[in-house]
Amino acid sequence: MTGSLGQLLDLLRHHGATRIYAKKLAPNDNSKNQVYLGGDFSALNIIPHGNIYNDDAEIGGAVRDRAKAAVDFYWVDADGVHHAPHTGLILYPKYPEIRMSGFLKGCASAPSQIMRVRDEGRVLFFGITRSGAVLGYAASGDDAVTRELVARDWPMVGVFLELPLTLQNTTSPRDQLLAELRRISRMHWIASQKLAADGTNAPYAARNGGGYTLEAELGITPNGYAEPDFLGWEVKQFGVRDFVSFRPKSPVTLMTPEPTGGIYRTEGVGAFMRRFGYPDQSGIPDRINFGGRYDCVRQHHLLTGLRMTLSGYDEASGKISDLDGGLFLISDRDEVAATWSFKGMMAHWNRKHAQAAYVPSLFQTPPPEYSYGPEVLLCEETDFLLFLQAFATGQVYYDPAVKVENASSATPEIKRRSQFRVAHGDLKKLYRRSETVRL
């Protein structure tokens, strides 16, 4: 047992937590009934997890098809950390909801006396590490930690309370982020740069340095697990024409997942490009391109003959009817050119979109420099179902930039870029909460 909330936060931080959350448990939140993590898929953005897969387990004599994802979960106490190897998330898309299970199995040091009962007032704490591990701590209703927690108001992220890393600094991650963005905005022009994994800073000359420069100023270095950039916030910059209208120069790229099926995967990118690509429209010789806008509203693309469809999603109810469905690029002859599975797309979407800050930037050269604007868009509480809803209505679309150079040679050079984009004005539709903040 930990004596105080401050000591618990220190303990979780000592074992590597960079974000800390708490969930007040209902009587049904126990090892028998699983722990309820919300009536949508937003918890997938908070709890790091492995690939989503179908678990065809036999329950009560019947085979029950469920979607699951493993969680690298450890119980924490004064003696150290204790692996709970069977912990996982269970997805119920038809409700929809997510639950966590298996957190006691195979772990002798698990807090069974708290997580097996239906007592009121219990709390489950989650510490998220940069490696993607999840640290757990369970407290009973009469624990001093619980009493201290419920005596104060904390910001909410879905069903979770968002806690600071230390009680010595209770400034919320949101306010800490805004303070840093305010400081960076006041620096005006900043030399283009990129931060290496070892923390060293180096000049960066390429034209895509806006994001790298902002990350360098925020102290964001690459990490193994695709952790959000800054205290749980994904920070994305976008180029604008000025800091008066803040008009974006281009749409926002949401993610860049490669297809998981179709001719693109079964026969390879080269075969896909020979069948559906087209000669470069600006006259560059011996180059094949594949581009254009593909969404669920437009008809087939004139140059490629492909159209986009959505399978396994019920637009009327806003629910996934088949988790084995996905996004399909179909030819005029009903060939499946490329597919993206829901499970794979969820993994991409869930990594960094729980809380996102969109920061405008200006560019000038020489030398290459960036200035970051005094107004930012903060977006919170996304859900993969919101992404699908926007995709079904054509607001989110597939905008590839695949090309084959030296196409007729024995060694053609293939460059892949499968990107899903949205107009900046439609960003808010992908989140339940959004706010434009003047710094």
Entry summary:
With 439 residues, this protein is an alpha+beta fold. It contains 10 helices and 32 strands.
Task: Give an overview in words.
There is one protein chain. With 439 residues, the protein is α+β, with helices and mostly antiparallel strands. It has ten helices and 32 strands. The longest helix has 14 residues, at 173-186. The radius of gyration is 24 Å and the shape is globular. Strand 9 (123-129) and strand 10 (134-139) form a beta hairpin. The mean pLDDT is 92.
How would you summarize the topology of this molecule?
Blueprint: H1 5-14, E1 17-24, E2 35-36, H2 43-46, E3 52-59, E4 62-70, E5 73-77, E6 80-83, E7 88-92, E8 97-101, H3 112-115, E9 123-129, E10 134-139, H4 144-150, E11 156-157, E12 160-163, H5 173-186, E13 190-191, E14 193-195, E15 201-203, H6 210-218, E16 234-239, E17 252-255, H7 263-266, H8 269-276, E18 278-279, E19 287-290, E20 306-311, E21 313-314, E22 319-320, E23 326-331, E24 336-341, H9 342-352, E25 355-364, E26 369-372, E27 375-382, H10 384-392, E28 396-398, E29 402-405, E30 413-415, E31 420-422, E32 431-438
Parallel strand pairs: 5-10, 16-25
Antiparallel strand pairs: 1-9, 1-12, 2-8, 3-4, 4-7, 5-6, 7-8, 9-10, 11-12, 13-26, 14-15, 17-31, 18-19, 19-29, 20-23, 21-22, 23-24, 25-26, 25-27, 27-32, 28-31, 29-30
